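pinned: reference chain
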Amino acid sequence: MFAAISGVPLGASHGIGHQLGPVGVGHGETSCILNPAVCKYNYTKKANVARQDAIVELLWANAQAASLFEERGLKRESADLGDLMDAVIRGLGLPRTLGEFGIGEDKLDGIAEHSLHDRWVKTNPAYLDKEGVLEILRMVLQ
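pinned: its C-alpha cells
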C-alpha cells in the first residue's frame, strides 16, 4: 500500500491483476502469473530496457539465483527478465498460468476490456490498448 499512496506507478501487472480476482485468481497470485509476461511485453516495446537489463545483471550476480536459472536451462546471454522471473516463480511452486485457474480464451476479451479502466494499467511503462492487454493475457493462458 505504501507504493500506491506514495505515487509509485504499479503498471499492468497490478492493473490487469485486479481483473483476475473476479474470475477466481487470488490477489497475491496475480503477479506470479502476470509479472513475467508484462516484463516481456514492456521489453519488446522498448519501454524500460535499461532498468530490466540492470535487474537481470543483479539477479545473475546472485549465486543462488544463477544456480536456479542454470538448472532451468537459462543462458545469461539470452534470458530476459521475464524468463528469470518465470524461473523464480516456478521454483517457488507458485501458479504461472490462467489455465491453472480454469480460465480460458473465452474470458480474455472481458478481462482485457475491464483492465483498460484500471488506473494502474495506464501507468504501465509501455502504452497498452486492448490488443496489448490481450497479448499479455495470451502469454499466460497455458
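why pinned: The helical segments are 2-5, 11-20, 27-44, 49-61, 63-71, 81-91, 105-115, 130-139. The chain has a mean pLDDT of 95.
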